[in-house]
Fold each of these.
Amino acid sequence: MLDKIRALLNEIEVLKAATREEVEELRIRYISKKGVVNQLFTEFKDVAPELKKEVGKSLNDLKEAAQQKINQLKESFETTCDGSTGLDLTAPGDSISMGSRHPLAVVRNRIIDIFARLGFSVAEGPEIEDDWHVFSALNFAPEHPARDMQDTFFIEKNPDVLLRTHTSSVQIRVMERTQPPIRAIFPGRVFRNEAISARSHCIFHQVEGLYVDENVSFADLKQTLLYFAKELFGEETQIRLRPSYFPFTEPSAEMDVSCSICGGAGCNVCKYSGWLEILGCGMVDPNVLEACNIDSQKYTGFAFGMGIERIAMLLYGIKDIRHYFENDLRFLRQFKAAL
Ligand code: DAH
């Protein structure tokens, strides 16, 4: 019996396996219930009593050695990676699931691109603002309703700290630190104290534009916006400017584009008018230039501002502004093809 054990011990010490399957075969042969080691245990009952102690110990040592050897062989396949490990190196990799840009980012980037081609750079300003940059420097009268808590989110009163209600505040920030020529656009998020519905939200996005130099005229404004509209909505697009009022521009206008859905014939998106309103614009009021220490005798400028949500709704036929903010993957995945 002892000889048998010794022989088996020697055999086990030099065991080798080339694959995981071979390790499994060895495990079954040596240490499974019906394996050779257990077989010896069943023979143990026939061992002479005076030898039981010695044989028992050797048997236990054998069992342990066999177990250790099999474990060692198993581990060698877990740590190496040489093609014989059971890892299938030819298996196709996990597919990388591609994200998509948010439609508002897609449209913002397109707007930035179009104005970049006209030499407009991009600047940004803070979302948390003061009264001066959002209202006073922009020529809002002291009692203007926009200054009311009904319309504006205030963080503090006296001195006022508030969430900007439009990106026009960035006009002031830029003009305060730069003398003309200035030609830039300002994309950003704005906040208004409004009830949330399919058509309006308390958070939305705008792109503001500003061009200040000597001899900038309303004709420059009109031509810039015509180019922009054709680039964004298509070559056949027409624009019309309707007189309007904003405190910071004089004269002021609102711009409509011919409806890109019905081509101007009339449909439910343009409410059968053939036109869609997309932005406000005008010549920078001299008071605004002066508030920023820019000589209004020497320089003139134009400005415009548009809502990104509304433009994206028109471009993609999105019916409810709340979709932009819910991050429902079924909505977002539809913009995979957009750049
Ligand atoms: N700030 C205006 C708004 O939020 C949009 C606007 C109108 C911006 C006319 C301008 C402008 O720069 O000239 O409704």
Amino acid sequence: MARVIAGISTSHVPAIGAAIDHEKLQEPYWQKFAQGIEPAREWMAENIPDVCVVVFNDHASSFSLEVIPTFAIGVAEQYQPADEGYGPRQVPAADGHAEFSWHIAESLIQDEFDMAIVNRLDIDHGCTVPLSILFGRPEKWPCRIIPICVNVIQYPPPSGKRCYHLGQAIRRAIDSYHEDLTVAVFGTGGMSHQLQGERAGVINQDFDRQFLDSLVQDPESIMERSRTEYIREAGSEGIELVMWFVMRGAMNREVEEVYRFMHVPASNTSYGLTILQNSQ
Ligand code: DHB
Ligand code: FE
């Protein structure tokens, strides 16, 4: 049977992807960030999963703004890096696991999560940057991926509570898949940031720290937070944090935090990374 070996959440800042692609992580601006992600990379290298279920938001790269599914799942054999305006990132295409994707899609829909099914999905920085952060610059990604997209760019986004329940349903889907596979579930995006408007540049480290503490120890205590609260406390793009609840929902109620790293700023964002394992 498939089983979840880790839950990982990380911000997906595009400038990090550019710094990795152009070998700039040793420059002064990125040095502390580079040191901070190193233990996560080492942990990952020793615990490479067969499959990564990557929960991210498409930033109008693959879906455009004409059709925006609230929740979507990729069921393709392969996913190409998206062209986000500067040509696609020079990273490998990600191999999918179509049979496993279809199983998860079926299980989620039977479980009352009406996923959009996506046969072709180009993956933007929301998905590729977390892979680069954890795996560096390999010629081929070391695991297959199953992309799950959450709408956080067009009002109304789903609530943290709904996302947590989606994560629980994803866990049931993974646990019921016949193949013997190890799986890591990634939540991506956040932490506090706002990219436009009067409050562009908002960062709220206290909020981010408390969010992460609560997410790990007591996710139910913060999952009913409103969209307005995210905007007020974490800026308009802070809503990306709801995707971290999908990861958390896929884990046991009691978890062990293997690693945490926070760094401010990374581009316009408060950067956060956590690796969770299920407590025995
Ligand atoms: C930035 C962060 C994001 O999550 C994103 O999608 C785009 C830009 C930033 O910090 O610049
Ligand atoms: Fe984003």
Amino acid sequence: MLRDIRLFGDPVLREKCAPIEDLDDEIRELIEDLQETMYEADGIGLAAPQVGVPIRLFVYDIRDPDVPPGVLVNPELLEPEGTVREDEGCLSLPGLSDIVERDESILVRGLDGEGQAVEFRADGLLSRCIQHENDHLDGVLFLDRVSPLKRKMLLRKWQKRE
Ligand code: NI
């Protein structure tokens, strides 16, 4: 089922999301809905708070034949290496994007959609995507990671859009 993507300004996007204790049917349904909603919006990642559910879960698919799509529950990002600056956008801020500095490579730990423990190193676009989605679980948006001046410009552009 498609869910409405919450836009910047919705307080749920600023919540510190709660860990998931039980991967029950409700959560499994949410995972399917997140995937469906992400593909419909042509995004490469979507976090639960973006559809109004403040829990620690996101889905991703960077559309790379060498990188399988995934689900992460209660993720932890560890052992960052290097930094990269690339353009980044967000389904909750359609029309906006800016250069954001991220860790080049990270170790990802968490559970998959079946509740199995996973651990892998991510780099390139996958690393950026996972850091972006993980930020959503802490109520952080990409525009919090640009300079105050850039943020002001982005916010002005956003207000004009509405
Ligand atoms: Ni986003």
